[in-house]
Design a protein that fits this description.
single chain, alpha/beta, Aspartate Aminotransferase, domain 1, Aspartate Aminotransferase, domain 2, seven-stranded mixed beta sheet, 13 helices, 42% helix, L-aspartate:2-oxoglutarate aminotransferase activity, pyruvate, aminotransferase, EC 2.6.1.-
Length: 395
């Protein structure tokens, strides 16, 4: 066949895509082998039946044709109202682009912020798709490592140094953070905002976990002085409303950026199906208690995990303020995150994400999703810690 473009073949920079353990676990399940899966952020409670009823109603009523590309006006208005209420930043539909999930918004933001060959900064540990998304947009990803002894918070001084060194056009931040659960303090975000202003580049803020706050408070950098005109915010209903498969998200940005991004959407996704948008509108406007209900199991299992981990001293828990994950330190076993995750799956049929999937600074850690029923979760975590203790004795 003809040669594939380097744009496609270089998305993972010649390495893996970070999902190898997940694929291995799914292959086992397909073969009929029971696996306890704690890999992806997939809520175990599926989309609320009332939302699905509205989706069905909209589809059978005929909203199955092309929907307006930027998003139906009522949904853009509802998203704008939500953002205004939660951040205090005046937001209108002209600041909103509805996208097929947060991943699409992430790609669109970097397409808007970066020219081909530009440097795009990202805080590490980072979500698995960040480097590939940046490369897909034609930019070059540059990681800024964080350290567990500093709660994986980024150092604005290090970001400033890297921005000057690379001539960066964008900085991607994620708080609450996936995979660490870190919620960046106000002082950290103010420092990052100052660096973005001084360097005159875009700050892209992935805020898809903004409804999963366990300690502290979420602050959108767009709400900081002078940042509304240089910040793009990624949002989604996947985590807040358990609508992962519906692929419905948004990008918040200055009006001129959204106007240009509508052209991108016209030439790529051509919008989101209207019946899904109708269901999203219903989800955002019909039940204020839904978001807390979706989040509560993760809060409960986090507390459950803290109790289990407190009874041993081999596996460390990185303090987390939000998101649906635990970030575990298994360096005392002498294994890498990849080695431990592979052995855990082979030995106990429990699948977790190795820290190395999220960048080198997460080596020796695991991300564990809080996404199975409480009793099964407690059993899996107890097995994991027991396995770690056995490995540590043998090391």
């Amino acid at each position: 066949m003809p040669i594939l473009s380097t744009r496609i073949t270089s998305l993972n920079a010649g390495g893996g895509d970070g999902w190898e353990i997940f694929y291995k676990a799914r292959a086992l399940r397909t073969a009929g082998v029971p696996v306890t899966e704690l890999t992806i952020g997939e809520p175990d409670e599926r989309t609320d039946p009332a939302i699905l009823t509205e989706m069905h109603r909209a589809a059978t009523a005929g909203h199955t044709g092309y929907a307006i590309v930027p998003g139906i006006p009522a949904l853009r208005d509802a998203i704008a109202a939500r953002v205004t209420e939660r951040t205090g930043v005046p937001t209108t539909r002209d600041n909103v682009l509805v996208t097929p999930g947060g991943q699409s918004a992430l790609f669109a933001a970097h397409m808007a912020a970066c020219n081909p060959g530009d440097a795009a900064l990202m805080i590490e540990p980072h979500y698995v798709t960040y480097p590939g998304t940046i490369r897909a947009a034609g930019a070059i990803p540059h990681s800024i490592e964080t350290r567990p002894e500093h709660s994986f918070f980024p150092d604005p001084a290090e970001v400033r140094r890297k921005a000057r060194q690379t001539g960066a056009s964008a900085l991607l931040v994620n708080s609450p953070n996936n995979p660490t659960g870190a919620i960046y303090p106000r002082a950290t975000l103010e420092g990052l905002a100052e660096v973005a202003c001084d360097g005159d580049f875009w700050l892209i803020s992935d805020e898809v976990y903004d409804t999963q706050i366990w300690e502290g408070e979420h602050l959108s950098p767009r709400a900081l002085p002078g940042m509304a005109e240089r910040t793009m915010v990624i949002g989604s209903l996947s985590k807040s409303h358990a609508m992962t498969g519906s692929r419905i998200g948004w990008l918040i940005a200055p009006e001129a950026a959204i106007a240009a991004l509508i052209d991108l959407a016209t030439n790529t996704t051509y919008g989101v199906p209207g019946y899904i948008q109708d269901a999203a509108l219903y989800a955002l406007t019909s039940d204020d208690a839904l978001e807390p209900r979706v989040a509560e199991p993760f809060r409960r299992r986090r507390a459950q995990a803290q109790e289990i981990l407190a009874r041993q001293n081999i596996v460390g828990l990185v303090p987390s303020g939000g998101a649906m994950y635990l970030f575990l330190d298994i360096r005392a076993t002498g294994l890498s995150g990849i080695e431990f995750a592979d052995a855990l799956l082979d030995t106990h049929r429990i699948a977790v994400m190795p820290g190395e999937s999220f960048g080198p600074s997460a080596a020796g850690f695991l991300r564990v999703a809080l996404t199975i029923p409480d009793d099964r979760f407690a059993e899996a975590l107890t097995t994991l810690t027991g396995f770690a203790a056995t490995l540590a004795k043998a090391a």
